[in-house]
């Protein structure tokens, strides 16, 4: 019986950097591309969700972590370090365990979701809470890696982008070609960089033999930042980024110029969405599509909906929205009503009639 082997074995021919490296994998990747009928109807296009919450640690970070930790193992590293808004730390911690390495993570104090914090601790990482935001954490992580024998596994590590580009290959393999538009949330901007690289490498490539590709065209890249943390939209770093979408609460993205290149080379755009738009998209995905994501992930869909409202979505276009992390990472948002109230479950006594009444089945 064939099981998905993880992104390094599955795309070995497209990851030359990894040649000869020991493969450290939790069988990441191979995530579903889910047709989103209600969202398609809403925006007047053919929309698919690349559900990255179904990776081993619940986010897309695992694609780049299998490659980063495998490269670290190749270099003989015993310890890895990262700065994180949560998901990178969860992923680094898990893959470090698999590789038998120690892991240190720097996170902004009080600004990472409980699920992610629990993961880093469960996997035995040394968690350092920094009085400062992600950008400050990344500064410290870079300095540590420069001065001490510890390998940096943030997306400034080239192996991270290499691994993450495989998501584009999977999209093309699933659709038989590239989509017309690809929507992504943007924080530190590694992922939009990786997707764009993946699409370019997979386009018109005669070496794609045993797969449905190659793609015959490139998608237009649409990136979306949270309005309170939108340096790429504003055109300058933001000192105090703020958003409820803590995953993308970043004021000075490390892959700034690569994100701008992805935007411009693809003829795309990077725009901002408000926290309200993010939460509305989060609710739409759970309640109308059956797909539970964390708020940061919903920025791609919030951006698509706003774009449709602004008349920017060509009728019938084939669109992929990546939803980057699982809803269980940061579940508190599901328990809020649209107007910010708390959801209180209906209590019923132990009999079928009162339960039926609560369900509207009985008058
Ligand atoms: N979505 C989620 C769920 C994320 O965790 C992140 C980034 C992004 C989107 C944005 O991706 O940074 O490549 O533009 N999280 C990082 C972390 C910063 O530390 O987990 P990006």
From TrEMBL:
Pathway: Amino-acid biosynthesis; L-threonine biosynthesis; L-threonine from L-aspartate: step 5/5
Matching PROSITE patterns: DEHYDRATASE_SER_THR
PTM-bearing positions, type N6-(pyridoxal phosphate)lysine: 61
Pfam families referenced in this protein's UniProt entry, alphabetically: PALP
Binding residue positions for pyridoxal 5'-phosphate: 87, 187-191, 324
Crosslink (Isoglutamyl lysine isopeptide (Lys-Gln) (interchain with Q-Cter in protein Pup)) position: 143
Superkingdom of this protein's organism: Bacteria
Cofactors required: pyridoxal 5'-phosphate
Catalysed conversion reaction: O-phospho-L-homoserine + H2O = L-threonine + phosphate
InterPro entries registered for this protein in UniProt: Ser/Thr_Dehydratase, Ser/Thr_deHydtase_PyrdxlP-BS, Thr_synthase-like, Thr_Synthase_bac/arc, TrpB-like_PALP, TrpB-like_PALP_sf
GO BP: isoleucine biosynthetic process; L-serine catabolic process; L-threonine catabolic process; threonine biosynthetic process
Tryptophan synthase beta chain-like PALP domain sequence ranges: 24-325
GO MF annotation terms: L-serine ammonia-lyase activity; pyridoxal phosphate binding; threonine deaminase activity; threonine synthase activity
Record key words, sorted: Amino-acid biosynthesis, Lyase, Pyridoxal phosphate, Threonine biosynthesis
EC number of this enzyme: 4.2.3.1
Function in brief: Catalyzes the gamma-elimination of phosphate from L-phosphohomoserine and the beta-addition of water to produce L-threonine.
Similarity section: Belongs to the threonine synthase family.
Protein name stated in the entry: Threonine synthase
